[in-house]
Specification:
Elements lengths: L3 E8 L3 H7 L2 E7 L7 E5 L4 E6 L9 H7 L4 E8 L4 E8 L2 E9 L8 E4 L5 H14 L12 H11 L16 E5 L3
Antiparallel strand pairs: 1-4, 1-5, 2-9, 3-4, 3-9, 5-6, 6-7, 7-8
Helix pairs in contact: 3-4
Length: about 180
């Protein structure tokens, strides 16, 4: 198995406003293993994260992200471990700021950057390339570059989809449903 998900974290507007803009409601039902199609958790430093069990969920398309990002910022990821594809993105005040993409099918060292990436990207990229080289480069059984987009998003909001405990604690996810359900 492997992850085939997307997630996004929003800061700058309250949880209730995030849910209202996305036409969602919090069921209050715990979703510890993120098995629900959509679940959410409040994080420290004002972030609210939505975990989407769908790599191509409509919430992570460009137009909805631009609309949601008015008056706030969004950082998120797409993760498809079956083909070793990862991407992170950032939106703020209605605009797309950057996307960082890794697709191992293009090449183990592939990393595409659209927009103006965060200043720490060069450090993350260099460290991952060094690890990749040390583990055998193109012939390695591991893909360290896959983690670069994920580490970039984590550095901004403090969340990563494949971790359950953080220095700040554990996220408490609850199931989210559409307002019509």
């Amino acid at each position: 198995m492997g992850y085939s998900i997307s997630w996004l974290a929003v800061r700058g507007i309250p949880k209730d406003e995030v849910l209202a803009r996305l036409r969602l409601r919090d069921s209050g039902e715990t979703d510890d293993a993120n098995e629900s199609p959509v679940s959410g958790a409040e994080l420290p430093m004002g972030w609210y994260v939505l975990f989407l069990n769908d790599l191509t969920h409509p919430f992570v398309e460009s137009k909805p992200l631009q609309e949601l990002s008015h008056g706030c910022e969004i950082v998120g990821c797409h993760v498809e471990e079956h083909v070793m594809f990862s991407a992170s993105f950032h939106y703020s005040d209605g605009r797309h700021d950057w996307t960082i993409t890794h697709a191992s099918g293009i090449g183990i060292y592939h990393l595409d950057v659209e927009g103006v990436a965060p200043s720490f990207l060069a450090e993350l990229r260099a460290a991952s390339q060094k690890e990749q080289d040390e583990d055998g480069g193109q012939k390695a059984e591991v893909d360290h570059i896959f983690d670069v987009p994920l580490k970039a998003a984590e550095r901004i909001c403090g969340f990563r989809h494949d971790r359950w405990r953080f220095d700040w604690g554990e996220p408490q996810f609850t199931e989210l449903h559409g307002n019509d359900a």
